[in-house]
Design goal:
alpha+beta; Alpha-Beta Plaits; Formate dehydrogenase/DMSO reductase fold; 2 domains; 12 strands
Length: about 600
């Protein structure tokens, strides 16, 4: 149990105040009745079985931040880091700011933010390992780093940048509400250390001393509708109409009307020149670029191989080319094995990959992993049964054929469903650039396009080598290739239109796409359209022999390069709805500078080079 000092000041203790029955979102503040059988249990803090004497132990607590008072002394950060013994590259609490106006009416508003222990903790629902728990004690959302295997998905879904992925330890850590201090009636270390009385703590919806407001939003704070966070604000000082961030995000906060109205998120346009920035297409998510594209290609190729003979493409049947058919199946199995290995090594703790199945009820990551695992195993079984039919020699031929077909249909269904679950991972309100149906058309479009490319490359080379004609095959493949590219292109058109209409962080991502990566973006779109037209021309002419194989290889090269560039842009362009950073701290621009200038090699800078 936490030891209370004999000279502990009065302001360090949580005030005893009457709270309403429900918060503003309609959730009860009393989380568990005192006579509940679960009440009175120990949190086993540091292995201590004792139970604290806090009378409000089972009420939802939260932070209170008075933006009028914060002087950006960072005492809250320091107290938190000291209390939790954090390395320089991690901070559960951070102070950022927005600023605006001109001298002498210049204003700066500081924001101190940590985990808000939300009513709807999306980190808890998204975590595939179930490392998160929302406790009835104080309503704290706690995370166990020992259970975490370092996928980082919780850092994607959280709008407040609360979970911190430690690339050194390969796990996520976050604010624990200092529950050990709460057990003895003390405020969290950050609130107790605040010099200016800006940060406070208590039962949610109770107004602290010397406060008037209990607002749920201030400029720079993401919409509370995503998670219903347990944090309340006060901000009474007049702010300029436009407030700017000092980090690298091209965002500003603008009031539509003069006066005390709310600021809305707008794009801060700084330049219009288009650049290539090909070197900056690399990111920590490079393994996911390869994993997603290979998986979509494998599912699409298997779909063609399995359904093609059923729709008249005899050249794709096992009976027509048994060696090619079996070899391609084994090739697809090998490709998917490589993709799965890449995605596993992308984890902070790859040896804990099996924990990905722990949260099938809520986590789209768990569902994607399960779907791909089922598809992968069924594909393997189908490949073995097709390649070694003697394994079913103890069955009647009709029964063996039926069993093989059933396994194939199940694999086809599992692959299609797995891609849907894969798309669901990215439908995240905290990342508006991803939260659009275009992700679905892109993933299924790549399934058709890359699947057609894969089958066409193998059968094109084999048919050209054997000198055999491929009646109808490349007409169908060309149409499927064009269809896949059209699906992605249509999605991209509506995606750009909707981002512009909705504004905010999504529009900021599109602004970066049109400027910082503008030439790359235009080149990708141009090649995509040109390849779609070429595919239709190819389907109409349907050349044969080595001319056919050569032209298909060139088109395939264009499709693969376009897909790689598009998927890399997908990951690097996203602007999350996180809190504004400072000039150095939590500033992606400073992180890039530190990597380029060598500052990242100095641990005290707080920037760690990405290990994978």
């Amino acid at each position: 149990m936490y030891k209370v000092r004999d000279d502990e000041p009065a302001y360090a203790f949580i005030p005893d105040k009457a709270a309403p029955e429900k918060n503003r979102y309609g959730k009860p503040i009393q989380l568990v009745d005192e006579d509940d059988p679960l009440a009175g249990r120990s949190l086993n803090i540091n292995g201590d079985p004792a139970v604290g004497n806090n009378p409000d132990r089972y009420k939802q607590h939260g932070f209170y931040f008075n933006a009028d008072n914060c002087i950006a002394c960072h005492a809250c950060e320091s107290a938190c880091s000291e209390k939790n013994d954090l390395p320089p590259h991690l901070a559960y609490r951070a102070v950022g700011y927005v600023e605006g106006g001109t001298w002498p009416a210049y204003r700066r508003m500081n924001i101190s933010m940590a985990c808000n222990h939300c009513d709807n903790p999306v980190c808890l629902k998204g975590c595939p390992t179930r490392a998160y728990t929302k406790f009835a004690e104080y309503g704290a959302v706690l995370q166990d780093p020992d259970i975490c295997f370092g996928c980082g998905y919780c850092t994607w879904v959280c709008p407040y940048n609360a979970p911190q992925l430690d690339p050194v330890k390969g796990q996520v850590q976050k604010c624990n509400m200092c529950v050990d201090r709460l057990e003895v009636g003390l405020k969290p270390a950050c609130a107790a250390a605040c010099l200016a009385g800006a940060l406070d703590f208590g039962v949610v919806e109770t107004t602290p001393e010397n406060r008037d407001q209990l607002k749920t939003q201030i400029p720079g704070f993401p919409t509370p509708e995503i998670t219903h966070p347990n944090v309340r604000f006060q901000q009474t000082k007049t702010l300029p109409r436009e407030m700017l961030r000092t980090d690298a995000m091209p965002l500003q906060y603008v009031k539509d009307e003069p006066g005390p109205g709310e600021h809305r998120v707008r794009v801060r346009a700084e330049k219009t020149a288009r650049e290539w920035n090909l070197r900056k297409l690399r990111s920590r998510e490079d393994p996911l670029v390869i994993f997603t594209l290979i998986t979509q290609a494998v599912v699409g190729a298997f779909l063609l191989m399995f359904l093609g003979p059923l729709f008249g493409l005899a050249v794709l049947s096992l009976e027509t080319h048994p060696v090619t058919y079996a070899a391609l199946l084994f090739g697809l199995l090998g490709l998917e094995t490589f993709a799965l290995a890449l995605s596993t090594l992308h984890l902070g703790k790859p040896h804990r990959f099996y924990r990905a199945f722990n949260n099938l009820r809520y986590s789209p990551v768990s569902r994607e992993v399960a779907g791909i695992a089922v598809f992968y195993n069924l594909l393997g079984v189908y490949t073995v049964l097709v390649s070694f039919p003697q394994l079913l020699g103890w069955l009647a031929p009709e029964t063996a054929a039926t069993l093989t077909q059933v396994v194939g249909w199940l694999a086809l269904l599992a692959g299609s469903v797995a891609l849907y679950f894969m798309h669901a991972i990215y439908r995240i309100p905290a990342r508006p650039f991803w939260n659009h149906w275009q992700v679905l058309t892109s993933f299924y479009g790549n399934m058709f396009a890359l699947g057609a490319v894969t089958v066409g490359l193998v059968y094109g080379m084999v048919m050209a080598w054997l000198g055999q004609a491929t009646p109808g095959l490349f007409t169908v493949l060309g149409v499927l290739l064009a269809t896949g590219l059209a699906m992605e292109g249509i999605g991209l058109i509506f995606h750009a239109r909707d981002l512009e209409r909705e504004g905010g962080e999504g529009a900021a991502s599109h602004y970066i796409q049109r400027t910082r990566y503008g030439r790359t973006w235009l080149a990708r779109n141009t090649v995509l359209v040109a390849t779609m037209v070429l595919a239709l021309v190819f389907a109409a002419l349907s050349p044969q022999g080595w001319l056919m194989a050569s032209l298909w290889f060139l088109m395939s090269l264009l499709v693969v390069v376009t897909a790689l560039v598009g998927r890399a842009l997908f990951y690097v362009l996203v602007v999350p709805t996180t809190m504004p950073g400072a000039f150095f701290w939590r500033n992606s621009g400073f992180r890039e500078h530190a990597d380029e200038a060598g500052l990242a090699e100095m641990p005290q800078v707080g920037v760690v080079p990405e290990s994978h």
